[in-house]
Amino acid sequence: MRVLIAEHHHATYADLLRRAQPELEVRASDDPTELAQLAADCPLWLGQPDLLAPLLRKGLQPQWLQSTWAGITPLLVKGLPHDYRLTRAVGIFGQVMAEYVLTYMLAHERELLARLASQVERHWDSRLPHSLAGRRVLIVGTGDIGLSVAQFLAPFAIELLGVAREPRTLAPFVEVAGLADLGRLVAQADYVINLLPDTPATQDIYNAALFAQFKPSALFINAGRGVAVVDADLVAALREGHLAGAVIDVCRQEPLPARHPFWTAFGLLLTGHSSAPTQPSLMAQLFLDNLKRYQAGEALRGQVDFARGY
Predict the structure, then answer these.
(1) Is 252 a catalytic residue?
(2) Is 128 exposed, middle or buried (0-12, 13-18, 19+ CB in 10 A)?
(3) Dihedral sign computed on CA atoms, order 141, 143, 145, 146
(4) Would you report the helix, strand and coil content of the chain in percent, each value rounded to 5?
(5) CATH label of the domain that carries residue 215
(6) Smallest Cα–Cα separation from 88: which of 282, 298, 302, 280?
(7) Residue 260 annotated to the active site
(8) Residue 67 forms beta bridges with which residues?
(9) Which of 33, 36, 58, 261 makes the best surface tag, with the fewest CB within 10 Å?
(10) Which range of residues forms the domain containing residue 20?
(11) 240 and 290 both lie in a single domain
(12) Active-site annotation holder among 225, 252, 293, 308
């Protein structure tokens, strides 16, 4: 069976697949012209949505496409075909995303940046630190990654709140409400962590009206999608003290333009879309597991509902 790998790290993926399943005929590249030539007779595609979307635009199409990203927005652009099986990367980002979130939550509680500033000023900073115990954390987006983050945070005696497309009961969350209740829950949260996918319903939801409902002591972490945030409203909310700070991993335009206000916004830290990189070894394992399911005619892990967009 022929597999097309469209990845900047295509050599690594090709080596992993060949070692695990030598009978696979692997064709790999990250060059757009070469990919178009290789894709024609490959029924299975594995790779980055930004490299594979142009192939779909050219009229090439797989039977099944396994994305190496959790987000598959480039493959949902209007005009691209949807009559193939598409799976996104699931089950491989939970721990690394939890480590990212926990890093900045602890840095916030321990006032790490303020202590660094004190050192630069040669000021002995003996303020007592705070603890995560008893803090309320709102995870907006309680899917595969959001649930994993919650499970990693639970041992820190944190009260976990969640927001999903529809209300549900889901441990270890105390409550999972629908998007309509986002305003009510951000007013209670010490940390608001956005992990929502990019859909029409999740664009521009973090606006001036919502930021005005935040606790002034709250930290906002966006590791979901940049389009969920109205940039100017976040900058204004930080300036006006509606929240204590923001850690922004994803932006509407990446790399962020040099003149964008995020670079100089008070209390805002940029992390350059580094929160949860794909680990090729885990991604290869997911692909091979889904390949077995595909060959057996079973349901695939992470299969996308094109109507929902995830």
Answers:
(1) no
(2) exposed
(3) positive
(4) 40, 20, 45
(5) 3.40.50.720
(6) 302
(7) no
(8) 47
(9) 33
(10) 2-91+279-296
(11) no
(12) 225
Tens place of pLDDT for every residue, the chain, 310 residues? 999 999 999 999 999 999 999 999 999 999 999 999 999 999 999 999 999 999 999 999 999 999 999 999 999 999 999 999 999 999 999 999 999 999 999 999 999 999 999 999 999 999 999 999 999 999 999 999 999 999 999 999 999 999 999 999 999 999 999 999 999 999 999 999 999 999 889 999 999 999 999 999 999 999 999 999 999 999 999 999 999 999 999 999 999 999 999 999 999 999 999 999 999 999 999 999 999 999 999 999 999 999 888 8
* One-letter amino acid for residue 159 of the chain: E
Catalytic position from the list 252, 273, 293, 301: 273
Residue 105 shares a structural domain with residue 218: yes
What pTM value is reported for the model? 0.93
Distance CA 282, CA 95 (A): 12
**Same domain as 229, residue 85:** no
Asked if residue 194 is part of any domain, the answer here is yes
Number of domains in the chain: 2
Residue 307 lies in a domain: no
Which of 237, 222, 138 shows the shortest CA–CA distance to 188?
A: 138
